[in-house]
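look at this stuff:

>
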Amino acid sequence: MRKRTDVLVLGGAGVDTIVHVPELPLPFADSYMIRPGIETRAGQSGDFVALGLHTLGLRTHHLDMIGDDHEGELVRGFHQDRGIPLTAVPLPGGTKRAVNLVGPDGRRLSLYDAARSHDSDRFEESTVRELATATLHAHVVITQPCALTLPVLREAGVSISTDLHDWDGADPYHEAFALQADIVFLSTTALADPEHTMRDIAERGRAHVVAATAGAEGSYLLYDGELTHTPAVAPPAPVVDSNGAGDAYASGFLLGRLTGEHPRRCALYGAVAGAHACTVPATRTDAIGREELLARVAEVEKGCAADAARG
C-alpha cells in the first residue's frame, strides 16, 4: 500500500519572539533600544523541519500539542498558509514559546518558556498510530511528550530520526531519543568529545547514521563505523541568523536519505540547506526548494572535483 505521507514530524511547534541585540553575550544595562524592532512569529524546530521537508517536495504532516491562544493561531496560520497538514492536539498550558536574542553576526540565544509544557501532557496513542501507519518516516522533536511516541512509532514499523540539538552527551532526558532513533542529528556545541558521543549513540542504540553539525566547521558523519567530515558550504548570501540552520540540515539530509542517496551525499544536502537557512532573517521562515538545493549540490561537487584534479 502506498503511504500518504513521506515524513511525519512530531513536536516542536511554537512561537518565537525575535529580539535583535547589539552583541552576544549582552552586557547588563537598564534598557536597550532595539532596532529593527521586536517581532513575534510562528516557527520552532518542528515547524522549521516540516517547512523544510515540505518545500523540498516531500509529503509532510506535523503533529503537536497547541494551545487555544493567540500563539496557537499563529502556528495554525503558519501551516495553513503553506499547505502543510497539521494535527493539533489541545495543550492546556498554552502554545510553546521562546525569546530569541539575535546578534549582529547571526548567532542567537534562545530562552524557552518551560511553564507551557507539563509531564502530564499526552498524545492519544490512537492518533499517533493512525498517522504512523500512513507514513514512511517519522522525525521526532525532543519536546514533551514526544518521547512517549517512540515505542508506538517503532511498532508501526517506520524509520525514525531525531535531533538532540545541543545535548551534552549526559542529560538523561535526551537518551530515549538518542537510543531509539535510526538517524540521530545533534550539535557539537556542548560536546567535549563529539566522536566519543557519536560512537556511544551508535553502539548503545539503534542508530545506523549519526550526524553532528559544527557550524562554520561543517559537520561530521558516523556511518558503518567510519567517521567522515563534510566541510561547511559557503552561504549564497550574507549570514544574518543561525536559527533554524540545524533544522534545515536535518530536512536536507532526510531528503537525500528518502530518495536513496548515500549518507555522505545526504550530509552535503544538509550542508547546502543549512547554509541557505543562515541567510534568512530571523523574522522570516523561508526554506530552500529542491531544484535550488540540487543545483547547489551539483555546483559544490563540481568544485570539489576541480580541486581534486588540480591535485
About this structure: The chain has a mean pLDDT of 94. The two ends are 50 Å apart (CA to CA). DSSP finds nine helices and 13 strands in the chain. The longest helix spans residues 290-309.
